[in-house]
Amino acid sequence: MRIVDLREVTAPIASSIANAYIDFSKMTLSLVAVVTDVIRDGRPVVGYGFNSNGRYGQGGLIRERFAPRLLEADPKTLLNDAGDNLDPDRIWATLMKNEKPGGHGERSVAVGTIDMAVWDAVAKIAGKPLFRLLAERHGLTANPRVFVYAAGGYYYPGKGIEQLRAEMRSYLDRGYSVVKMKIGNGIEEDRPRIEGVLKELDGKAQLAVDANGRLNLEDAIAYAKMLRDYPLFWYEEAGDPLDYNLQAQLAEFYPAPMATGENLFSHQDARNLIRYGGMRPDRDWLQFDCALSYGLCEYQRTLEVLKTAGWSPSRCIPHGGHQMSLNIAAGLGLGGNESYPDLFQPYGGFPDGVRVEDGHITMPDLPGIGFEGKSDLIKVMRDLAA
Ligand SMILES: O=C([O-])CC(=O)C(=O)O
Ligand SMILES: [Mg+2]
Questions:
Q1: Nearest to 322 by CA among 345, 297, 355, 298
Q2: ipTM of this model?
Q3: What integer is the mean pLDDT of 186-209?
Q4: Does ligand 1 come within 6 angstroms of the Cβ of 338?
Q5: Which is the catalytic residue, given 124, 180, 182, 374?
Q6: Which contacts qualify for 102-107: CB closer than 8 Å, 24 or more apart?
Q7: Which of 108, 185, 225, 372: CA 20 to 30 A from 216?
Q8: Does the annotation count 322 as an active-site position?
Q9: Cα-Cα-Cα-Cα dihedral sign, residues 298, 302, 307, 313
């Protein structure tokens, strides 16, 4: 049993949306295929992975550094003790050989993308949905019903409050109970946007707001004072992701739930947020996204760090809207997952036929991560592996 190839293609996921920090006019992602010599149902098992939006494709790093490391390794060193499957942690250690600690950034995206494909292959070789495999490995009971919320509400050229309200209405109509919109371009602009959306929701769903790290301490506090007039689901990523002091100070001005963590890419950074960011385990939310942060092998270490600090995995609702985090949520008891109903296709979203009901989806029993159940996505994946 061995990995015979690792392929990468950098693909566009560009759109004309913008948050308070970046626009997505040149956004890309890496799609990878880990091809094995294991045969299931008459064809070789191929694991697939991609990074989520917000960081760009990592073709250079994957092709120059990580794929060669994996393909040059003695295949036996990448297997589990029983020799009947690949071992994700041994593969992870091989990928990260001769990498210094610290400075977690783009390489964490490259490794997270490959790691997703490896776990997909491992669950397919085991013949199980990844969420069931994960639950078994951790001695837990899987729960295929997962909370999801609808993320959107971007700034968009020429987009007025009426369009924003219509967008949010469409999420309500599709079964979501929590929706999210962007803020951070200025209180004068954002207050009427928030009030318009709340009016549209009319108490039938809750609203989360996301500043994408745009605000300095003074502005983050000014926003906090404005936002606490409204019953929000959460106030997300007010300031720079590494400014733990800002996050900690904000709690004095904002008693309601806050969320952050999508731009922290290692368990060490997650631990610093918990140690120094003043995050409150009884109400705040952690959004670490394995596809940007060294993958599920690292995410399991992050969950250990949280446990040690007294945090439940149910406080985690990852960023990114991909099926990998849906599997982790269903298998390891996270609080849910993000979803972008109208963006980043064909990568994000759910297998065909999966519907949102009362803000939840139910995972179908598909081997691996479940990409084979999403016809537009598996088509581009198979094109890469062909
Ligand atoms: O706009 C983005 O970069 C995505 C984002 O923050 C989120 O989904 O929370
Ligand atoms: Mg965000």
A1: 345
A2: 0.99
A3: 98
A4: yes
A5: 182
A6: 102/268, 104/265, 104/266, 104/268, 104/269, 104/293, 104/294, 105/265, 106/55, 106/58, 106/61, 107/58, 107/61, 107/65
A7: 108
A8: no
A9: negative
Place of tokens 């309200």: 165
Cα(51) to centroid(ligand 2), Å: 15
Catalytic, 225? Answer: no
- Note residues around ion ligand 2 (Cβ under 5 angstroms): 210
174: its two tokens: 């599709």
Quick one: which of 119, 112, 75 has its CA closest to 96?
112
Q: Residues 251-285: pLDDT tens digits?
A: 999 999 999 999 999 999 999 999 999 999 999 99
Cβ of residue 151 lying under 6 Å from some atom of ligand 1: yes
Location of structure tokens 């963590």: 261
CA distance 325 to 27: 21
DSSP string, 251-301: TTT--S-EEE-TT--SHHHHHHHHHHS---TTT-EE---GGGTTHHHHHHH
Give the residue, by CA position, lying nearest to ligand 1 atom 4.
Answer: 54
